[in-house]
Please model this.
Amino acid sequence: METAPQPLTDTERIDWLQLIRTKFVGPRLFVELIERFGTAAAALEALPELSRRAGGRKKFVPPDRDVIQAELAALSVAGGSAIGLCEPDYPDRLAAIADPPPMLFLRGDKTLLTRPSVAIVGARNASTNGRRLAGEIAGQLGEAGYIVVSGLARGIDAAAHADALETGTVAAIAGGIDVVYPPEHEDLQNRIATTGVVVSEQPVGTRPTARHFPARNRLISGLSQGVLVIEAALKSGSLITSRLALEQGREVFAVPGSPRDPRCKGTNDLIRQGAILTESAADIVSALSQQMLRPQQVTSRAITPQPVEITPETEPETAHEKIIELLGATPTGVDELVRECHMSAASVQSMLLELELAGRIERHPGNRISLVF
Model:
């Protein structure tokens, strides 16, 4: 049964941050642990024993509570706040993607995250025409009632944010909400925090590194109904954002460009693959209006606690070995594994969680798993 979103208490917020800050615990594993144990506190208590039972060698050591309390205090000083995946203010579009961030950190008007929105991304070394077009489309989208989402990078991102300041813009960034990157965007980031909202899944004080940007791109697409790409080379980060948008079931739009310009090869290729050719905001508004007319699936909040007590009768000592024997390098569906094991789905899921914590299995899209050799 789906549970209604509930605010976290101060104690629960610390528990959540302790769990997500624990090494080896990512967004998907976080949700699995909450679903299994019902609360982050219970999951934290159970982690060491779960790993040990499956023969794991990983050390799950959460940060001290005073470290988390200091982080939350620094967040408050920076004028920010935190929203957990289970809370009413967490944006539904982001909650609907695979493995959404368990905790969002933001500075600004969080209500913008619930409004219709379109992402605009593109080249950092954008042409003058590309930047001008990004600004024009951003302004037109704002007039049509859409919030503009982007990544606060140089070039196309900055142009889109600047022309959407009056109507509302969301900056999804790779570092902490109190860290400005690139440095020349300090004024722009502060203006967005005043009239729009700056969002991140990284702790305050985090300096962005290369590994943070894929998560930032996932935020951009996850917060948006569609992604517009203006000027993107064939191996650019903007194309990663468009691929994530497709995986998340969002529309992808692209502005065509000269075949002689390397900055346009990526966008032209997107159109070749089926992205919607875009010359103005009207093309986007028209496509998204048609999308809204189609029947919409109700998206459930990503965490539904279903605590399961596994007894000796449902978890024989050889159960882990039995599951391992049935797995190989090729991913196997969990449903098929349940049939082969002749055990309850709850027992199999519980032991898979333990094997995952032990680093002995790997999860794949489509509810499939494989053995780690």
Notes: The first helix runs from residue 10 to 20. The chain has 15 helices and twelve strands. The chain has a mean pLDDT of 89.
